[in-house]
């Protein structure tokens, strides 16, 4: 009797449980794949741009950090060598140190004996080459920071076109799933483009600041060297 009552109660409760709304969750992978073929292609392109931005950022960051390392006694040694007329020793010291500053000073040392303007011009030309080397591929980050959101907006337009196309060809009965796929494409690609653009923009500006510090260091040491040559003997 009791078992029969329990079974009847369970049968009466099951329909009520089936009618309850179930909370739906959506993972990142599902969010990408539900955006349709166009959404997947654009998200894949944005992912490639993100990998490129991260690689360029860390590669340039380590290179700039290495370039900023200058021995505190380097300029003091150069001053002693130049003051004592040991030009060859000064040149050997510059050659032994691998940094933008040492290469600029080496260019100046090799021009000792010529007019000061010629030495200054030679150092400036060498400085431009060093700056160009430091900024290698940094402009790509700037391009990614601007292009990624635009690519994301392209996905938004494509998604909206798909949604409008389905509405126009629904014949009075709109397929909610197909319509939702177009909206997923629109929203997902926008978010992806903005994320990649923001990451690339922050990375670009951080590298610019780091590069400027190295440039100021180069300028300070170059002026110190020119002041040394300008001192009365």
Detailed description of the structure:
- With 233 residues, the chain is mainly alpha-helical.
- It has one domain.
- It starts with a helix and ends with a helix.
- About 5% of the residues have low confidence.
- Pfam families: MotA_ExbB.
Quick structural overview:
Helix content is 82%, strand content 0%. It is mostly helical and 233 residues long. The chain has one domain.
Topology readout:
Layout: H1 2-18, H2 28-33, H3 36-67, H4 74-83, H5 87-96, H6 100-110, H7 116-134, H8 138-168, H9 176-230
Transmembrane segments: 38-58, 138-162, 182-204
Subcellular location: Cell membrane; Membrane
Organism: Olleya namhaensis
CA(first)-CA(last) distance? 119 Å
Q: Please, what is the oligomeric state?
A: single chain
**Poorly predicted spans:** 12-22
What share of residues are in beta strands? under 5%
Organism: Olleya namhaensis
Protein name: Outer membrane transport energization protein ExbB
Family: Belongs to the exbB/tolQ family.
Domain MotA/TolQ/ExbB proton channel: 98-219
């Amino acid at each position: 009797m009791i078992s029969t009552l329990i079974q009847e109660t369970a049968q009466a409760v099951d329909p009520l449980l089936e009618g309850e709304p179930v909370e739906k969750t959506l993972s990142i992978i599902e969010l990408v794949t539900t955006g349709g073929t166009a959404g997947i292609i654009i998200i894949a392109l944005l992912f490639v741009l993100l990998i490129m931005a991260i690689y360029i950022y860390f590669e340039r960051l380590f290179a700039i950090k290495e370039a900023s390392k200058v021995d505190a006694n380097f300029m003091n040694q150069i001053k002693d060598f130049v003051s004592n007329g040991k030009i060859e020793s000064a040149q050997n010291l510059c050659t032994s140190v691998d940094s933008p500053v040492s290469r600029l000073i080496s260019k100046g040392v090799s021009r000792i004996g010529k007019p000061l303007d010629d030495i200054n011009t030679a150092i400036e030309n060498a400085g431009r080459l060093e700056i160009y080397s430091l900024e290698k591929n940094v402009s790509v980050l700037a391009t990614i920071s601007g292009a990624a959101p635009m690519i994301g907006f392209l996905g938004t337009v494509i998604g909206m076109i798909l949604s409008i196309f389905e509405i126009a060809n629904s014949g009075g009965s709109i397929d909610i799933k197909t319509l939702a796929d177009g909206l997923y494409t629109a929203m997902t690609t926008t978010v992806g483009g903005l994320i990649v653009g923001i990451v690339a923009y922050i990375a670009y500006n951080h590298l610019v600041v780091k590069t400027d510090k190295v440039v100021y260091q180069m300028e300070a040491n170059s002026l110190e060297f020119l002041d040394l040559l300008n001192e009365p003997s």
